[in-house]
């Protein structure tokens, strides 16, 4: 009996020792159940909120991106990736580039082709609306050079017009390039390349014409007169050989005709832009003709230079004859001659 009572007293003492911990465990267990219940109630709500946000994100991704909502600075950064020098008239498309068999070209197989192919991005996006087109063209006019050309392939003779109607080749049929006067007024850098034949002078005897009466020159001046913000404007007069025709005439009439622009001798209203440089070349072989450059330091006077940029002499002006022009075109450079004589002596 005493043994039973002793064991009972031991159990009672142990129970009293563990009772605080059990009470704490029961309270903690009760709180854990509450948290589980709360999470069970909140979990469906959280799932609903997440699902609604996911559906909203999907809807927003399907909506078109509003490009015009970007600041002007960011839109300009996008435009810069599409800037190219405009060419008038535009070159014909290369059939090889448009071919679906382009992947079969040998240059794509071998490693000899070190230069990667030029990638021309599509610019149809700039026809989206007037604002995008205006901003894009405004950046092109400020940062790029417009390249105009007249070649036997693109040359279109003027339509028959009574002589009394000149100068009025401003109609659509008489335009040399398909470009609007408004766009020309924004151009800041321009180059003009003339690739001409004897037939493009429009006369059988070039001695019977004057530079101001040249039909093609008059048509070009009538369009180029709208360029009021030009900073650089160069001309390259290239003559195609003809056994019965001296290319000197096209060089002379082209330079004298377009040198009239922007001066008191101009026959257009407004006067138009002033050329900044004129070069001359042949189709196959050129002995190194001198070239003309406008000297702003001397009040815009034309100055002749050799191919090594040595000063030859000043230009005779609007009254220069063909003989005087030929003499300046092929005048020997005194500096180059001394250099050549010095090299000969050393040898």
Could you explain how this protein is built, in words?
With 347 residues, this protein is an alpha/beta fold. The protein has helices at 2-62, 72-80, 95-98, 130-143, 181-184, 215-224, 248-258, 322-329, 334-346, and strands at 87-88, 146-150, 189-196, 232-239, 277-282, 291-295, 301-305, 311-314. It has a domain at 145-157 and 165-346. It has 9 helices and 8 strands. It has an 8-stranded mixed β-sheet. The longest helix is centred in the N-terminal third of the chain and has 61 residues, at 2-62. It is elongated, with a radius of gyration of 41 Å. Residues 1-6, 95-101, 103-117 and 162-170 have low confidence and may be disordered.
How are helices and strands ordered from N to C? HHEHHEHEHEHEEEEHH
What value does the average pLDDT take? 79
Q: What count of helical segments does DSSP give?
A: 9
Strand order of the largest sheet: 1-2-3-4-5-6-7-8
| Strand fraction | 5-15%
Largest sheet, if any?
Answer: 8 strands, mixed
Name the structural class. Answer: alpha/beta
**In percent, how helical is the residue content?**
25-40%
Sequence stretches where pLDDT stays below 50 over 5 or more residues: 1-6, 95-101, 103-117, 162-170
Report the C-alpha radius of gyration, rounded.
41 Å
Choose one word for the global shape.
elongated
| Record field, number of beta strands | 8
- Could you tell me how far the N terminus lies from the C terminus, measured between alpha carbons in angstroms? 141 Å
Descriptors:
347 residues; alpha/beta; 8-stranded mixed β-sheet; 9 helices; elongated; disordered N terminus
């Amino acid at each position: 009996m005493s043994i039973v009572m002793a064991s009972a007293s031991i159990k009672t003492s142990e129970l009293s020792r563990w009772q605080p911990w059990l009470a704490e465990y029961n309270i903690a267990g009760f709180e854990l159940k509450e948290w589980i219940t709360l999470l069970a109630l909140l979990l469906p709500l959280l799932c609903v909120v997440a699902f609604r946000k996911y559906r909203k994100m999907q809807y927003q991704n399907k909506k078109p991106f509003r490009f015009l909502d970007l600041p002007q600075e960011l839109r300009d950064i996008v435009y810069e990736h599409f800037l190219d020098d405009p060419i008038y008239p535009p070159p014909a498309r290369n059939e090889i580039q448009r071919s679906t068999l382009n992947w079969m070209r040998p240059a794509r197989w071998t490693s000899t082709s070190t230069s990667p192919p030029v990638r021309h991005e599509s610019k149809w996006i700039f026809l989206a609306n007037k604002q995008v087109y205006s901003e894009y063209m405004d950046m092109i006019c400020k940062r790029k050079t417009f390249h105009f050309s007249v070649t036997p392939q693109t040359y279109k003779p003027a339509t028959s017009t009574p002589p009394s109607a000149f100068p009025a080749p401003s109609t659509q049929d008489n335009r040399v390039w398909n470009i609007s006067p408004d766009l020309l007024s924004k151009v800041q850098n321009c180059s003009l390349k003339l690739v001409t034949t004897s037939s493009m002078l429009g006369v059988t005897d070039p001695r019977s014409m004057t530079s101001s009466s040249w039909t093609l020159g008059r048509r070009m001046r009538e369009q180029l007169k709208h360029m009021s913000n030009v900073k650089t404007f160069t001309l390259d007069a290239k003559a195609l050989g003809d056994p019965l025709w001296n290319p000197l005439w096209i060089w002379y009439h082209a330079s004298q005709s377009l040198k009239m622009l922007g001066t008191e001798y101009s026959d257009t209203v407004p006067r138009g832009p002033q050329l900044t440089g004129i070069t001359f070349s042949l189709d196959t072989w050129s002995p190194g003709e001198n070239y003309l450059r406008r000297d702003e330091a001397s009040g815009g006077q034309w100055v002749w230079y050799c191919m090594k940029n040595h000063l030859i002499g000043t230009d005779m002006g609007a009254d220069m004859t063909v003989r005087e022009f030929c003499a300046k075109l092929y005048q020997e450079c005194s500096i180059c001659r001394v250099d050549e004589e010095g090299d000969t002596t050393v040898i």
